[in-house]
Design a protein that fits this description.
The complex is a heterodimer. By secondary structure, chain A is of the alpha/beta class. Chain A is built from 19 helices and 13 strands. In chain A, the strands form 2 sheets. Chain A has a 7-stranded parallel β-sheet with strand order 3-4-2-5-6-1-7, with helices on both faces. A 6-stranded parallel β-sheet of chain A has the order 8-13-12-9-11-10, sandwiched between helices. Chain A is globular, with a radius of gyration of 25 Å. By secondary structure, chain B is mainly alpha-helical. In chain B, strand 1 (72-74) and strand 2 form a beta hairpin. Mean pLDDT of chain B is 87; it is low at 349-357. Classes of the chains: A alpha/beta, B mainly alpha. Chains A and B meet through helix 4, helix 11 and helix 19 of A and helix 7, helix 9, helix 10 and helix 11 of B. Chain A: It is an enzyme of class 3 (hydrolase).
Chain lengths: 516, 357
């Protein structure tokens, strides 16, 4: 029955899109005929439609595992706005009371987003098992792979979760998966017969530019120069919250006719929504942001993406520049870097994994307390005492679990004869992760410094070829900003109105036209 | 800077009687009996909880500046106590008209103001979009409690949405006309409507050339005044009072005290409540003191008779102290700590005490 559905009609009906983008339809068809699918689709190609439309069409429930809570919540908000109401996001930050309320009416939903941590809890599995699950989606599936740029230990357990839930159809999706990572996904999930839909990730409408400068001041001059006679939707990426604020202030002063704002994860929720939506709504021209911005943002006419700090891996870079030109129109990515930026990603890697000292202190602390009084230890307390960051702690915790060194009640199990071995194994794994990450940084730095075609080198590890660029190729192939004359956006100004007039306008007083 | 003036203004009321952290807790709205006591004792109820995002480090920084400017001095043998100097008082006088001190009604509206404002914002956005038949917009507020409330009101009133929107416009415009121009336009700038999102706090700071802290404090003041205008002229307004409905002031009270309060309203005795809830009598006493702080109609006579109250009051006046231990020692043995705390928690006692002093 399901095969006879005209997918275009359904797409129009539920999401108001006239046609599919590359790759979407084939994936949906395969999933509807109950085939497991691995889909690699470039950023901005509408990966989520692959399961959102499918969820509407399938009899049972669709579960989506996604690593980022904010991303899940953004998607839920957008779906609700398009009148897809039977959708919910479950995560471990919810109040238990609210979560239990949702569990009671779980069968009423068609699409359930779940964070990977929550799937580790027995209660979640028990509740989900009561439902008729048609499809299990693993979003950002590269997180499953040790070689992926965002390895998430929680993801390794998804195979068992899927089995527990009675092996529903599986859809693994990623925007950035090299061949190695793809193989890893298939191995870990143990689905050798999975149908692969791998699409090239190069974007022929984005011109790539890299510019080495001597210091931050020069970066600022370059940016001011580019923006001084161009009003186009622009994103500028930074590695720290503080610099987004500083540069936003600086640019507002230097370029007063441009509407500039900053965005980062430390802002209040209402202000975050405000800035995102003002940008969507053409009330802002430039956003200075951290990588927290952009996920789940569907603005299709971003013309310029600038990196003030370079990302610590090629995959992130590809993902971030992929927010430009989703409408297919010609766009530019500019990466600015000075040699002194190089310490930033090295430092970030150190923040992500525990140091050897921290690890040693942890093992000593547990051993001493076990030998002395065998009092149960508060793990969170230890994590604080040894100053673990959240990601450092997650790494260690997963390793403890994986070595059966922790029981269900969060009590560390101590065995004298295994203790030293365990330390060495975990320490070895730690070093290996660092090596992987450092390799990624080197890859990024070497790409930025390459003399050959930037496009060719950027996609080398992902695919064998790329399609010819629709306009300029890259800064190594002769692109210069002199040649860039993008169509400018017009700013509708509300300025000059006094508050009474403005209030009238906001309340649509005198507005008679009630349809769009 | 508003915060400097608020500290000096509060300081003038406290002169040498309280520590600087007393002011910090007051402005931040600490939910402690001591802080609320102080607010009432020093007639600073209106500043209670008007700056919930105040941080200790920035507060301390302000204090250091105030000391350096000789606006306040610390007492030499008790560094925690402080006085506002004559210079400080003069400076404050110059600030007086720049700052809407009189707008604040902290003890009444802290915690209420935010809910009121978020409901109002989302309501305007929803009704404006609905008028334009646009049903897919990203709500400016995404707190479940607020969205549920607006959804409920929307369903109930959809048929008359046009009239509601225009009535609300007239009411708001009437209210805002009682404000200074900058204040009214600051408020209007924050509003989100159809195809238009209002300014963030950060954007307001740029437009009005104020610090984040000042924008927050001014905004809080404006909302308190709006609430005051609405509540004192209830008959004038049809729509605005709706946004105040069911915001219980009870959310100041801890959940566990709330549970005790429910049982109390059902006429259970303290002993019965302790048994039902499986808690100690002392804990129930704590709850009752907490409830009595916020509930002006608390039936104190059930627990403290007239004579006992007079005895406790006399002791307080005599000692000129509110220390529980001192009071307990000064009254008859059969008067309990619980009774003393209840008497202390009643606001009218403090105005009386003010007269005594």
């Amino acid at each position: 029955m399901i095969k006879d559905i005209d997918l275009e009609v359904e797409l129009q009906r539920y999401f108001n899109y006239p046609s599919f983008r590359t790759g979407q339809k084939e994936i949906i068809q395969d999933v509807l005929s109950e085939k497991d699918v691995l889909g690699v689709l470039p950023t901005g190609s509408g990966k989520s439609i692959c399961y959102q439309l499918t969820a509407k069409l399938l009899e049972g429930i669709t579960i989506v595992v996604s690593p980022l809570i904010s991303l899940m919540e953004d998607q839920v908000k957008q779906l609700k706005a398009t009148s897809f109401k039977e959708v919910i996001a479950l995560n471990s930050f919810m109040e238990p009371k609210r979560r239990r309320e949702i569990y009671r009416k779980l069968h009423k939903y068609k699409l359930i987003y779940v964070s990977p941590e929550l799937l580790q809890q027995n209660e979640t599995i028990v509740q989900l098992k009561k439902c008729d699950i048609s499809l299990f989606v693993i979003d950002e599936a590269h997180c499953i792979s040790q070689w992926g740029h965002e390895f998430r230990p929680d993801y390794l357990k998804l195979r068992d979760v899927v089995r527990e839930l009675g092996n529903p159809t599986l859809l693994a999706l990623s925007a950035t998966a090299t061949k190695t990572v793809q193989d890893d996904i298939i191995n870990v999930l143990d689905r050798p017969n999975i149908v692969k839909h791998i699409h090239p990730m190069d974007r022929n409408n984005i011109t790539l530019a890299v510019k080495e400068v001597s210091d931050n001041q020069e970066k600022q001059e370059v940016i001011v120069n580019i923006l001084s006679n161009r009003r186009v939707p622009t994103l500028i990426y930074f590695s720290s919250r503080q610099t987004t604020e500083q540069l936003s202030m600086f640019l507002s002063e230097k370029l007063p006719y441009l509407r500039v704002a900053f965005y980062h994860g430390g802002m209040e929720q209402m202000d975050r929504i405000t800035i995102q939506q003002q940008f969507m709504n053409n009330q802002l021209d430039v956003i200075c942001c951290t990588s927290a911005f952009g996920m789940g943002i569907n603005k299709n006419n971003i013309r310029l993406v600038i990196h003030y700090h370079f990302p610590s891996q090629i995959e992130s870079y590809i993902q971030e520049i992929g927010r430009a030109g989703r409408d297919g129109g010609s766009s530019i990515s500019l990466l600015l870097y000075s040699k002194s930026d190089e310490y930033i990603p090295w430092h970030m890697v150190q923040q992500e994994l525990p140091s050897e000292d921290q690890l040693r202190s942890f093992f000593n602390l547990i051993e001493n307390s076990k030998l002395k009084n065998n009092q149960p230890l508060n793990l969170e307390h230890i994590s604080e005492q040894l100053e673990f960051t959240e990601t450092q702690w997650r790494f260690l915790y997963y390793q403890l679990e994986n070595h059966d060194m922790i029981d269900k009640n969060n009590v560390v199990l101590y065995e004298k004869e295994r203790w030293t071995d365990a330390f060495h194994t975990i320490n070895w794994l730690r070093r290996e992760r660092i090596t992987v990450k450092e390799g990624k940084i080197r890859e990024m730095i070497s790409w930025m410094n390459s003399n050959g075609c930037l496009r060719e080198n950027l996609y080398r590890n992902f695919q064998t070829s790329y399609s010819p660029p629709i306009e300029q190729c890259c800064s190594n192939c002769g692109f210069s900003f002199h040649d860039w004359n993008p169509e400018q956006t017009t700013a509708v100004e509300q300025r000059g109105l006094n508050w009474e007039e403005k209030l009238k306008k906001l309340f649509l007083i005198g507005e008679t036209n009630e349809t769009k | 800077m508003y915060i400097d003036s608020l500290i000096l203004k509060s300081g003038l009321h406290m002169q040498g009687e309280r520590t600087l952290s007393g002011i910090f807790h007051l402005l931040k709205g600490k939910k402690s009996i001591q802080t609320i006591h102080d607010a009432r004792l020093f007639h600073l109820e209106n500043f209670y909880g008007i700056h919930p995002t105040l941080r200790k480090d920035s507060f301390n920084l302000t204090i250091r500046v105030l000391i350096k400017s000789n606006y306040i001095v610390l007492e030499s043998n008790h560094k925690e106590l402080f006085y506002v100097t004559e210079m400080g008082r003069k400076w404050l006088e110059q600030q007086e008209e720049k700052i809407p001190f009189t707008y604040y009604k902290g003890l009444t509206y802290h915690g209420v103001s935010n809910v009121f404002f978020e409901r109002l914002l989302l309501f305007i956005q929803t009704f404006a979009n609905s008028k334009m038949k646009n049903f897919s917009f990203i709500p400016i507020v995404d707190k479940e409690s607020i969205t549920q409330w607006v959804k409920y009101i929307y369903k109930k009133t959809k048929a008359t949405e046009q009239i509601i929107l225009s009535d609300l416009y007239h009411e708001l415009s009437y209210v805002l006309n009682q404000f200074k121009t900058t204040e009214a336009s600051l408020f209007v700038d924050r509003i989100t409507s159809y195809n238009y999102y209002g300014l963030s706090i950060e954007q307001l700071t740029q437009k009005y050339d104020m610090s984040v802290e000042d924008v927050r404090l001014l905004f809080e003041a404006i909302i308190h005044r709006i609430l005051t205008i609405v509540e004192t002229n209830k008959n004038r307004f049809r729509i605005l009072p709706v946004f105040l409905k069911d915001i219980s002031t009870q959310h100041f009270i801890t959940n566990t005290a709330k549970a005790t309060h429910q049982l109390l309203l059902k006429q259970y005795s303290i002993e019965q409540i302790a048994e039902i809830r499986g808690l100690k009598i002392n804990t129930i006493h704590d709850h009752l003191v907490e409830i009595s702080l916020y509930d002006r109609f608390f039936p104190i006579r059930t627990y403290v008779d007239q004579q006992t109250e007079s005895e406790i009051l006399a002791a307080i006046a005599n000692l000129n102290s509110m220390k529980l231990k001192d009071i307990k020692d000064a009254v008859s043995d059969d008067i309990s700590y619980f009774q003393i705390r209840l008497v202390l928690s009643q606001s009218q006692i403090f105005s009386k005490m003010g007269e005594i002093k």
